Structure formats: C-alpha cells, structure tokens
Amino acid sequence: MGRTSDVRVPDVSVVIAVYNTMPYLTDCLNSLVKQSIGLGRLEIVAVDDGSTDDSGRELDRFAAKYPNTVKVVHQANSKGPAAPSNRGLEIASGRYVYFMGSDDYLGKEALERMVAYGDKHGSDVVVGRMVGTNGRYVHQALYKKSDPDVSLYDSALPFTLANTKLFRRELVEAHKLRFPEDMPVGSDQPFTIEALVRAEKISVLADYVCYYAVKRGDASNITYRANHLARLRCTADIMRHAATLIEAGPRRDAVFKRHFTWELAKLVQDDFPALEPETQRDVCAGIAALADLYFTDALRDSMDVKRRVRIGLAQRGALAELVESISGGPVTFLIEDGRVYARYPGFRDRRLDLPDRLFEVIGDEGLPALLAEGTGLLDAAWEQTGERGRDMAVALRARVPVVGEPGALSLRLAPDALPRSADKPGGRRLPGGAALPAPGDRPTREVSDDGTGTVLGATFPLPPRRASLGVRVYVDMVGATYEIPVKTKDRPLPLARRWREGTPYRVSAAGDRRGRLVIGTAPLWGPPPGAGKRLRHVLSRVKRKLTR
C-alpha cells in the first residue's frame, strides 16, 4: 500500500510584483518572513518583472534562505504590475491571496490577524488597516472601526480600491479574476472592484495597522509618472468595466463618486493650465465622455462644489473658464433666496447654459477652506480712547468673499487661539448653538469696490490684561456657522503701542505661523509669559529632591 504524500496548503499566499525597488524591497521581504503567522502557514510568490537594479538578486537571496516559503519568478519587463501579478496568481496555492507593493511593508501580526478574522467571519475579502509613510496619502475613513460585514455601496470602501487586501482564493478562481495587462496605471482597480461586487462578505480590520504604504524618495512609482492622457484612458477603462458589473442607480453612483472626485478631478487641478492646449482639449473631451455616461444629478449633488464645477466645465468644453477657475484666485459666494452659490467662471453665463445647481453649495465640507482663501485683512489701526486716552482699541477692516444677502456676517475677536483641531488652512464649522464672541463696536458692512466680497469693519476695546486675541469672521450659510480666521495677506500692521500710565501695557498685531492675525496685549513690565508655570515646576523639583 503506497503512502499518500502530504501537500502543504498555505493559509495565505502573498503575491509581489517587483520592478527596481531596492532598497525598499529588503524591508518588504523582511516584514514578510518575520510575520507572526509563521513560515509554515505562509507562501511568498515574488515575480521579478525585468528589474535592472539588484532586486532580482535580492529575491534570489531570500529564496535561497527560505526555500520552502519564497518562490521567485524572473520575466522580461511588461511595463506594469498587472502581468507579474497575474503570473503570481497562477503559482499561488494558499487559501487566501494577498497582494502588496514591493516597496511597502506589513505590520508583524498583519497576516495572522487578517486570516483569523476572515476565518471567524467567513469573509471573502478582508481589508486590513493601511497607512501611508514618507508623505504618502492613504484615505482613512474606512478604518474608523472594525466591521465584519461592510458594503461597497454605503461605506468608504470605494475610496480604498487598491488590491492590498486579503482575498479568498476560491472567490478569485471561481470568477477567474485577473488584472488587465493593457493598463499602465490603475490595473488593480478592475480586479478589486469585481472582487468586492461578487464577494458575499467583506470585512474591515481596523484595530491594527496591517499595511504601511511607502512613498519613495525618488517618486519612481509608475502612478506618479503617468501622464494625464494615460491616467484618463485607464480611468475610463475602470469605469466602463465597473458599469458592466453594477447597474445604473445609487449603487453605481456610490462607486463612481470616487472616480469623479479623485481620478478625474485630479486631471483638472493645479497642473492643468500648464498643459499644451491640445492635451487640455483631449482631457476635457475624455472627461465629457465619461460625464455624459455616468455623471448623474445625484452624483453631482454629492460632490464638493469646487470639483463638481470643474467636472461640469470640462463636460461643457468650457476650456477658458476651466483654466480660470483653477488659476483665477479665490471664489466669491453669492447668497440669494436662501441658497449659496460659488461664483466660479461660467456661473450664469448664457453661452454655456450651465444649471445653477452645479454651482450651489450643498452641505459643502470644503467651504471653510474656500472662504478662507478670500478672507483677509484690509487695514488695522490703534485708537486710544477714554479719559486722557487711558484705554486702547483696535479698528479693523477685513474682506470676506461673500455677497448678496449675507445674513449673519460679523467680524469679531475671539479670546483664545484656534483649537488644535482647526489648526489647518481654512476655518472650521461650528456646531449648532455654539457660543460666539460678542461683535465689536460700531460695526460696518459694505460691498467691496470690485463687487467680489463684503468689507466688514469694527472697533474692539482691548483689555488691560495679558491676552492673545484671534481676529475672526463668522459667516452663517447653508445651515451652519463658519469661523474663518482673518489672514494678514502681506498687509502692513500697526506698530506696537503702549497705553495706561500707572501700569503700562503693550499692544501688538502680528501674523501667526499660518499668517492669521492675532492681537496681543501684555503688561509692559512683569514676568514674561509662562514664568509662573516654570517657577512652580522648578520649586516642585526642588521639593521632591529635599524629601528624598
């Protein structure tokens, strides 16, 4: 009676497409062979796609050191990751298959945790938490919490379509999922989208960082090198493939929102005006073809106004207006009949006949930053008031890019610096019912001379105490109050002044590290700021030493 040979079936096969990624490749491979899942449950399939650096030799070194775990294939360069990924899939034998970039690395327990999570919940796809390193951006909304059963259509999953996920190999083979080899960029998306559409259960593991995505210092990743037209063609291929899998309606809109706000919107951002006119026309024509097919009213309304307008202008072929909307400076907001419109080029232009709805602000999360772009100081001056000029005030005028029916629009001093959560370009949206600082004396409001904004003025009494006062504009629109810091915008600031006789005080105006105007008051004499805290700290240390 013959013996039945035991064939080891790994729990997970990791497939890596490799092309010239030294020295990052070494870190990648080390993170794999040191996985807590153990070498006996792991298979690594690395396909060298014609590397011309030391990547091929490094793969062979690991294969020699871990012969039962690491499998290496060398092939001629195919000009993209799709062909080597497909070759790796043909070799992979694990119950699950996991794809990773050869310049990235995994957390030590990543594979063990994802396999256990998939087995526990019967998952077809497990998405482990992914973060960026070295300045690489990775969308984080999906990773707020672990969830054993998420939907492609009502979660942030469409914004996480890289193939860096754990796929049950039965799913991959049952539907013959492979990567399209004619796409220089984005070839992982058709594979991932179809896997997510066909999966019975998709799980998110968010309580452990599984994947570290590295941005190379030389920016040699093929995604960064692809030109506008190549990226446009690949995005069109992705969307047309997805359209064969998802019928028209809210589900398709949920997926395609990613492509309109990400891939397509990136084609008409800051670098677009510098393109050759012919390339600009080709980009607009390509966007228009996709918008005609898939840019539904519901999808349009779900997007932020800046990206939405650029897509709409490209769709209409309004090249001059599109270029101006990108490079023409801050946008003005019109409040009319209770609605708010961003007056980008093309707004109510009869030649273009674009609907007002395209320009309407609809619960826009990007509104604080857009308002901040056009909000700035016009002038500031000190005024000594009261008996014998013992009191001090500051007279301020600032411009905010809002016209029409401004409603609640005021210039104020806030007693504290902006909170850390708002320490970013732009302002912040305040919760309903938030207490606001009282407006200044003698407020004024008038339309700016060029008609692109409103000029607010007020005189603020200054307290004879140490204070740091941020200058803000508060704007009520679209059912919320927006707090916008006023920037100095290279305006001359008044020189510091002294006031009061018995205990003189000093007042100054300065821009903080983000150029936001801050009025500071302090006694002219006395301990410097923070001296009391430092003294208490020193006395506490002395006391501890004496009691030892």
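(the above was protein one; protein two follows)
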Amino acid sequence: MADSPIISPTMGRVHLSQEGQIAIITLDNPPVNSSNDAVRRGILAALDKIDTQQCRAVVLMGKGSNLMAGADLRELEHEPTEPTLPQVTAALSAFPLPVIAVICGHTLGGGLELALACDSRIATPTAQLGLPEVTVGVIPGAGGTQRLPRAVGLPKALEMIVSGKPITALEAHKVGLVDELLHATEGEASDTEAFDQVLAYANRYQGGKQPLAERDVPPADEQALQAQVNKLLARARGLPAAPVAAEVVMKAATLSFSAAIAEERAQFLALRGSESAQALRYLFFAEREKPFEPTQPVKAAPVSRISVVGAGTMGSGIALCALKAGYSVDLLELNDKALEAGVARITQTLDEDVKRQRLTQAQRDRALSRLNPTQHLPDVAGSDLVIEAIVEDLAIKRSLFAELAKWVSESTLLASNTSYLDIDQIAAGIPHPERALGLHFFSPADRMPLMEIVRCQTTSEQTLSTAVSVARWLKKKAIVVANSWGFVGNRLYAAYRRQCEFMLEEGASPEQIDAALETYGFAMGPFKVADMSGLDIAWKMRQQTADTRHLRRYVGIPDLICEAGRLGRKTGSGYYRYDDTMRPTPDPAVAQIIERYREEHAITPKAFNEHDIQQRAVLALINEALLLLEESVCQRPADIDIALVNGYGFPRWRGGPLFIAQQMSGGELASALDKLADVSGKGHQRANRQDF
C-alpha cells in the first residue's frame, strides 16, 4: 500500500501507508496535528481503506513532534460537525485489528483520547500526556473521563482530569497508561530509528484487541476517593468545569461505559458554550498571540548572559528565573550580607524544587554553576542584558544606569524593574538610549507569570523584540506597554483599590469587601492583599502626593490605620489582626477607627450587598482599562486582561474586565460607567472609549 493522502493539504492531511503487515495512519496537520473535522474524516477514511486480511495491526502516529496536541479550540465556538471525535474514538476502539498509538511530544486532550481508544500505547521518553480540558472550561468529551480510569484507576484519573495537569511518559509508563517506552535516539537518523522501533513493536505485538471500554474500573476506597476529590477541587478553585469533571469521572465506577460516555458528552456540550468556557478560550488565544509586532522585520539579538543588579527579594527572584531558563547570571550586590542572603534564597528555592521533584539534582547543580555572585560592577561588562532591581529611588537608579553604560557594550540592553518610576528619566543621558527599557517582574519573580515590557520614547523595535524573546525563554506572559505611571497592572490595581476604599468610607467593612470579591473569584480580597504587602509602602506614596489631595476624593481611613501602628502582617495587625498562623481575623479596633472617621466626616453609612461591591470594583477596572486604551498605554485590549489574570488574581474564568465589557451592549456599558462616575466623586475620570 503506497503512502496516500486521505485529506487535501490545505485542510490538514491524514496519510495511509503499509509496511509489511502493518498499516500506518499518519496525522499531518501542522503545526501540532490538532484535531479538526478534516483530520477526523481522514482517520475514518483511512480505517475504511485498510485491508484487514493483509494487515495484522495498525499504527496511529503523527508527523512532526506530536501525535496530536489537542483539539482546535476554535471549533468550540460552533456547533459540532460530523464526524465528531467520539465517533472517531469509537471507530478506533471497534476496529477489528489492534491499533497501536505512538505518543510523542505533547499528546493532550483529544490527542490522548485518540490514544486511549487504541489497544496499546507506546511513547517517546520526552512525551507529555494529559487531559487539560478543565483549563479551557470544558471536560474531556470523547471518552477520556471513562477510558482513563479503566487504564490507570480512579485516583490517578481524577488527579489528571480534575487538575488538567499533564504527566511525563515515564510516569505514564509507571501507572500503566503507556505499555512501552521507545529508546531515546539522537542525530539525523533519529526519526528512522524511532520508526524502526515502532514497527518492531507492532510486528511482535500479540495482545490482540484490548479496548478500554470493556475493562472494569479497578476498585478503590470510596472515602479516600471523596477526600481526594475535595482536595483536588480546593486546588482547582477558579476552574468551573472541575467539579463536573470529578463527578463524571466518578461515574466510571457506577455506570456502564455506554451510559457514562453519554453523560460525559452531555456535560461537555453543556459546558462548551458557557461564559466561563468562552472566557478561558479567549485568554488561551490571547496569551498565545505575539505581544509585539514590529513595523519592519527585525531580528531579536542573542542573549546568553544576564546581569541582575540588586540581590534583594526581587533581584534574587529575577536571577533565579533566569537561571532556570538556562541563562548565565551575574548577581551584583555591593552589600556582602545582602549578596549572601540573595544567593541563599536562590539555593534554598532550588533545593525545594529538587525535594518536590520539580528539578533533578543535576539540573539544580547546573543552574547554580551558571550563577556568578559579585560585588564588582565591572563584572557586568560581558552581559547581553542588565536588569536593575534596586531601591525605588529615581536619583539612585539614574546614577546606576549611567555607571552601567560605562562598562557594558553599546549593544547591551539596560532594563529597569521599577514599578512606578519614569524609565525615560532613569535612562536619560546614557549613550545609545535605544537599548533602554523596562522589564517589570512581579513578586515572587520566579513564580509569577506576568511581565510588563515597558517601551520608552527611545526604545528600538529590536530591543523590544529581544525582550519578547527573553520573556518567552523565562516562560512569562509578556505584554508590551508604554512608559506611564504604574504602567498597566499597577495603575489598574490602584483604581480597583481606590474604589474599594470608597466603599469602605461609605459603609462597607474590610471583611465584607474582601469576602464579596473572593466570592467573585479574586484570589484574595484587596484589604488582605494590602496587609500582606505592608501598608507603609502605600502610606509613604500618599504622603509624597499630599499637596494634590484637594484635586480628588481622598479616603483617610488607610492613613488612620497606619498611624495606629497597624502596618499589616509584619506588625501583627493591619485591616485585620494576625496570630502566629498569619490567619486574618476581623478586629473591633479597626471597626472603631472607621466608625470615628465616618462620624468626623458626617458620613451616614449605607448598606452594601455582595453584588454592589462586585459591580463597583469590576466597573472601576473596566473604566481604567478603557482609559489605558484611550491613552495608548497599551495597544491590545487583551493585554489588560492578561495582566490582571496573571499578575493580580483576577478570576481567570471571568476573562478579564474588557472581556466582560465586550459582553455588554453599548448602552448598558455607558449607563454603568455613568453610575460609577456618580458614586466616585471628585477627580474621577470617566472613560469614553467603547470601540475595542
């Protein structure tokens, strides 16, 4: 049987060929062999063409680095078309010859469901297997919730499906999901060697048909399973499909395969059009778009060595992030004790990663071998990128930039990690100002996914392209923003916090506001966040702008809290009281401070309900987001949603403030913004832009 394409190249191809008695179906839908209706038709057409008298087995594999990296999520925006993926998995399961799936690369979602419908699974050692559907608002819809428990048992199936996290091929082999691991191959002949291994396995395969649909689910302790479900759902907070996934997986133990598979499909179809699923898909695509498109083709400059100036919490976190990404890192700190503490933080975190099996001991050792702690500024001379993470003082940062420019080459990028300061002023006067920019990390820098790449007036497009490339290696969700106070994230959060303080003044309590917004889906309420960060930082900033308070509505309650010595967790009290466990407890002393303030300002407190609080907070974010677009601080509306979701705890399954605004009619949005302006008082700037 010659290699014959079943589907045209313009829509994704499926090839059918034969090697001896082995029929080979190859998915060829670049770049990741995602499932679409053309590929599904091609698989069924290939099965139909196989001569079951001449062949003893079928191999299902993918061209390139993946078997199938999952479904084409854009299909979820429309009604399902036939053949559906469940029809394909049913056909693979029912095919008279044994079908062997070759798992490689990222075999996720529908790709793993295809493999589960086969009779045997073999994998490359570096493959990743998973059913991540809950992360885009749905559940597996082609048998995954029922076949996986029959392959690996309910506990492992629950863990994989409810969390959505993939596992390695090594673990998959250990738990019985993969029958055999292919030997690792290198060099130009690797593809041929791997294919020879696949053929050898297929030719010696004696297992016959082994459809998972006909297997019993291994018994498990019900009480232990329920405890596991509760734990998984607590971790999956913010994934609305997770409870549904757990419920459907558990049905594998109580329903017949056919009944459970029908329930799975019904729940999948019900979830696919939900607002949370739409929001999660929106973010999925937004986060995969390029954050910056140059006006002319430019090539990112190579970066292999990064210097970080400042070994405090932020500086050591940035250095750790770069080490994990494979960069050589100079950590520069003039204070010897601070440098020692920074290196200790890096070492401790790497050791914890080894303990938790996030890294091997060898990976940890290699990372530390690339770290060069130093107290000598000239040591940065050979760096491709220098990131300053020192104290937030304009004069000090400006002096540092001038010194750095003396030692590094004219092509070395100079970046500031400032949160609020004007980077154009920081970089003023340095030679080759086109290499200056902001790289705003979020704490803890090695774990928080957001990075703001700040474009100064002089920043070149090559510098931005290089920064985007570095961000990708650092595994950051990067957005490109203009040099402006607070950039995008901090400015949005300031508007959100300010509106919450307005409600505090008007009659709501800190715990009431926090509870309402946590119920809405925020990771933590604003007053708990303030206590965690420390109230003195914002207090000092307010003191620096005291002469402009008359221009806007000003709430003095936060100042009174600080004046009472309540600076947050670090002092044992802030908006809440804290014991040794650092658990926040409402404090009557805070209620008294707020009550006295209202009396002194003749404010009659009004009642707030949960919905009132949520609406005002979210509308404040929408209004500020629209102002950012009006002022061209960022170009893509989605960047604002990416920032809030990845840096500020906004509920991912709600999409972000501009996603929410897009679901509103023009009249509805205008009316809501008018009401927000009415309650916000003096100094509030109402956004006008609605075309986004």
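Reviewer note on protein two: DSSP finds 27 helices and 20 strands in the chain.
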